[in-house]
């Protein structure tokens, strides 16, 4: 079992995660004109907090994650809510083939910094979008490595200009960033803010 599998049962009990999902959803609504005619894919969905905050503004949603534990909790939430327009999908774009389905919007939150080969995943995102289509990425700004525990082998946040260049290389245009949240963590006995950006880009 992965760390995310083990943490899945208690994931939604953290009010910070719920607040973060709410703020990111609000920012997505502000930056993208959402309609019930739009199909969506959340990549790295976890227990679906972000999609549950967005689903009333969108059409059918596919919620993808590589964690079986997270997807198990998600399926229980979907069943409890009797939701017919949410479909869980086990998917790891670093190793699995692309799904056949294409989407009008793809969104992901606090997932990209866990993926070593971001360029491969961004290219996958581009392929998974209809034309026109919107990509929304919420993640950490570049930080000094103190956000995660020792041994973390992902990205210590992202430099916005470098990420924009990688997105342009993948084919995206109209790339824009805004700060949408600040995660407060205790580091060295002091409370420290870690800004979270929302990046929105278009496939046109």
What does this structure look like?
With 204 residues, the chain is of the alpha/beta class. It has one domain (3-203): 3-Layer(aba) Sandwich (Rossmann fold), CATH 3.40.50.150. The chain is 31% helix and 30% strand. It has six helices and seven strands. A seven-stranded mixed beta sheet has the order 3-2-1-4-5-7-6. Helix 3 (49-54) links the parallel strand 1 and strand 2 (61-65). The protein is globular and about 50 Å long. The mean pLDDT is 95.
Question: Briefly, what is this?
Answer:
The chain has one domain (3-203): Vaccinia Virus protein VP39 (Rossmann fold, 3-Layer(aba) Sandwich), CATH 3.40.50. The protein contains six helices and seven strands, in the order ααβαβαββαβαββ. It has 204 residues and is of the alpha/beta class.
CATH topology: Rossmann fold
Structural class: alpha/beta
Given as residue ranges, the uncertain stretches (5+ residues, pLDDT < 50) are none
Output the CATH class name. Answer: Alpha Beta
Strand content: 25-35%
Tell me, briefly, the overall form: globular
Key terms:
Rossmann fold, 7-stranded mixed β-sheet, 30% strand, alpha/beta, globular, 204 residues, 7 strands, 6 helices, single chain
Give the arrangement of secondary structure elements.
Elements lengths: L2 H5 L7 H17 L8 E4 L5 H6 L6 E5 L2 H14 L4 E5 L12 E7 L8 H11 E12 L19 H11 L2 E15 L2 E14 L1
Parallel strand pairs: 1-2, 1-4, 2-3, 4-5
Antiparallel strand pairs: 5-7, 6-7
